[in-house]
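Suppose a classmate hands you a notebook page containing two proteins, each written out with its sequence and a corresponding row of C-alpha cells. How would you begin to make sense of it? This section walks through that situation. The first entry is reproduced here exactly as it would appear on such a page.
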Amino acid sequence: MIGKPGPFQIVEGDNSGCLDAPMTPPRRRYLCQNYTKCLDVAGALNWDNFTCRGCSGETDQTLLWRAKNSLRKEHEMQKVFHLPEIEALTTDTDKIEPLKVAGHSGKR
C-alpha cells in the first residue's frame, strides 16, 4: 500500500463538531488487520478522533511507543487498551522481533 504508517490524529479547531455544522465522519478502514491496534493506540493517547486516510496499513511504531509509555503507570487503563509489543529491527534488517518495554511484561 502507498502512504505512511498510521493512525493519524484529527484535530478540529474550527467548531466543526457543533450541532449546526456536524463533523464529517473520518475515513476508516474497518477491515484493516491493524484497525483494532490503531484504535487502541488512539485511545491510549487520548485522541478525540483519528483517520486511516493516507495510511499504508501498518502501525506507526513511534505512536505505539508513545501509547505504551502513556499507559506505563496506568494499570487500570492497561486492561482496556491491548497494545502489541513494539517491533525493533535486529542486525538482520529482514527480521523483526518484539522489543520488551521496561515495566511491562506484555502478558494479560
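The notebook's second entry, a different protein, reads as follows.
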Amino acid sequence: PYGISVSSQVEGPLFTQDAIGSQLVFTKQGDQCVLMQQYPYYDLFDFDRCNGDLIFKERILASDTPYANLGVAFSANGRYLYRSSSQHILQYDTYASSIASTCDTVAIWDSSFAPLGTIFFMMQLAPDNRIYVSTAQGTNVLHVINSPDSAGMACNVVQQGLVLPSYNAFSMPNHTNYELGPIDGSLCDSLGLNNVAVINQSNEANSVTVFPNPSASCFNFLIQNETVSSVAVYNLFGEVTVTSTKPNINLSGEPSGVYLYRVKTRSGKEFRGKLQKL
C-alpha cells in the first residue's frame, strides 16, 4: 500500500565488467546467488530472503581461457554451481569451505557443428530440474545437463542433447521460480504465513472466529475453549502494524489491504490467518 522503495547495499569486491554473457542467478531455494562477470571473476553470495541482504561468500577466478565466463547455473538442490566457457563446462561444490578448490571439468566441447560451432554459452535451470546450455553461434541445438544434483561426471552432460525446431544463438528464456517455497516459521515470509494459516484452518476447523472480516476498523477474535493472550497483525512485508493483549484490534489507522494475524492463547496455542482491511 505504500508503493515500492529501493535501498542500496555494498557487499563484496567491486564488480567491474558487465558484458555479453554475464548472468545473475539465484538458487531454486533462493538462499544463494552468483554474480558473474564476463572475465575473469565471479562472486558467490548467501542471500537473506527476509531482509534482502546479500552476504559475500567467495570470489572465484576463472583462469582457464580468455572470456571464460559465459554462463552459470545452480543445480536444483542448490549444492552444485555450473559455469560454462566456450570450451568447458565446470562444476563447483558450494557446500565446501573453499568452493574454488572443488572445480571439476564435467564436459569439453566436442567440436561439433549444427550448422555453426556449438560452443557452450548461457545456462538455465529449467522446471524439469535439468540445466540447458545455449550456443554462442546460430545452431538448432541446446546442450543438456541431465542430473545436475550429482557430483562430477555423474551429472551427465549430453552435448547437442536437445534439437530445436529452429535456429537459436546466445539467448536463453528466463523462468519465474514458481516453486520457491516458504521459509518455515518465518514471520517475514508472507507465503510462509499463508501456508501456516491453511494448515491451522484445516487441522483446527472453526477454532478461530474473526468478526467482522472484512472490516474497516475493528476485528474481534474468538477461540473456542481458549482465552486470547495476545494478537499481532503484520503487513505483507512481515512488519508488525498493531499488537494487542485483548481479543480485538483496531486497524482504522492502517491502509486498506490484506493483513496477516497471529493469535496466542494463555494455554500456549498459536493461530494464524488473514484479515482484509476495507
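A careful reader of the second entry would note: The two ends are 12 Å apart (CA to CA).
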